[in-house]
């Protein structure tokens, strides 16, 4: 579920609490901005948001693939994913988002299996301040420290992780 080519996220299997929070944040405005999704969220009542979140969470998600740490990462994106850039206070993505970016609870959604355009757009939204609904502005700080090339590379890394021709 989702349409990677259009930049739409995969929602199937995401935690219901995460999905509900995102819809409520869009509805309330201020911490997450998206003109199309704002209109959709505004049209939903609390019970509908909960029902939608529960339904999407129950849908099967792609099975996460294991991520092996290699001696020499093959791309800047893989370096950020598994090693971070600690000299710039950027932790590796897997520290918060779990093994292979498979997601941890309601605060740290899966990165693996999301489209490259969606991931890049979210990182840019944190850079620009149009998305500010993460714990302690962790992603805001990280995104503002990334170059455009790093955004593209880390997004591509997680989007292709486990796919034929992609990362291991």
Automatic annotation (TrEMBL):
SUPFAM superfamilies: Cytochrome c. InterPro entries: Cyt_c-like_dom, Cyt_c-like_dom_sf, Cytochrome_c4-like, Cytochrome_c_Oxidase_Subunit. Heme c 2 binds at residues 93, 96-97, 139. GO terms for cellular component: periplasmic space. One of its GO terms (molecular function) is iron ion binding. It holds the Pfam family Cytochrom_C. The keyword Iron applies. Binds 2 heme c groups covalently per subunit. The keyword Signal does not apply. Keywords: Heme, Iron, Metal-binding. Residues 79-162 form the Cytochrome c domain. It comes from the Bacteria. Heme c 1 binds at residue 37. This is Cytochrome c domain-containing protein.
């Amino acid at each position: 579920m989702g349409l990677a080519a259009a930049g739409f996220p995969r929602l199937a299997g995401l935690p219901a609490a995460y999905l509900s929070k995102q819809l409520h944040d869009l509805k309330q405005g201020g911490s997450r901005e998206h003109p199309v999704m704002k209109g959709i969220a505004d049209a939903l009542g609390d019970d509908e948001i909960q029902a939608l979140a529960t339904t999407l969470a129950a849908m099967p998600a792609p099975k996460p693939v294991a991520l092996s740490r290699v001696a020499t990462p093959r791309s800047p994106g893989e370096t950020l994913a598994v090693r971070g850039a600690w000299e710039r206070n950027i932790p590796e993505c897997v520290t918060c988002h779990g093994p292979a970016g498979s997601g941890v609870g309601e605060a740290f959604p899966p990165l693996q299996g999301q489209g490259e355009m969606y991931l890049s757009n979210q990182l840019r939204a944190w850079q620009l301040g149009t998305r500010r609904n993460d714990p302690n502005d962790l992603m805001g700080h990280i995104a503002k420290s990334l170059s455009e090339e790093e955004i593209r590379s880390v997004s591509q890394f997680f989007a292709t992780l486990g796919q034929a021709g992609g990362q291991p």
